[in-house]
Amino acid sequence: MDHTDHNDKIDHTFAVCAYKDSPYLEECIRSLKRQSEPSKIILCTSTPSAFLKEMAEKYDLPLFVREGESDIQEDWNFACANASTRLVTIAHQDDVYHRDYAKAVKACWEKYPDTSVFTTDCVIIRNGKAQRPGLIHFVKKILRLPLRLRPLADRTRVKRMALMFGNPIICPSCTYNLELLQRPLFDSAYKFALDWDMMWKFAGQSGRFVCEEHPLIGYRIHDGATTKACIENHRRSEEETAMYRKIWPEAVVRFLMFFYRGAYSAYEK
Length: 269
Known about the structure:
alpha/beta, Spore Coat Polysaccharide Biosynthesis Protein SpsA, Chain A, 9-stranded mixed sheet, 11 helices, 9 strands
């Protein structure tokens, strides 16, 4: 069967960023293949290997290889550049996506065509099992409350209200409207706080933030995750302090970081 005409009508791409040979990549791809609403899927990497070539061939996916040293920001921009659609989800290789994620993306843009960023809640997966929501998960829900005001969520002040005390937006749950946002999409001096920094910048641009509080992704935490590595080398603390300094006076920054250090300890347990 020729799917060319049908695929040309699809306006959403899952761009899977693959790094080395993740044991979770195939599960991620399968979750994207099982979507109830069809989307395009591409595989992008800066660490080509026989394993990635095999995965691309097995699931009939285009494989794009970026030359040069691996860098999370450059890898994400490369993924966006190789997507042929207006809407792009940068899918993280360790995570899994609910079968109705793409359906929710379509419904979002049908109702709010001026959406610049779509995001959802998540389920935390640790050691292969879904975890009960903890305090940090609850706090992030509270911080996202301004985005529940969808008729007002096209205003910079409302969007930034959700980002003033931290970044509650789950990066791999996001779909970006490349027609509304700056290009290249990611342009930050940070590594860990890259997504927070960019969300703050996106909030200052035109477009609406839409948050679907139903958990539509499974977010995996494991020892090899970038998040955990950043905590261990203290980069997270340094970069989040710098982000707070963009938003708050120094006295408030010290107060907020006191509580955040406790959150790091809870994360590592």
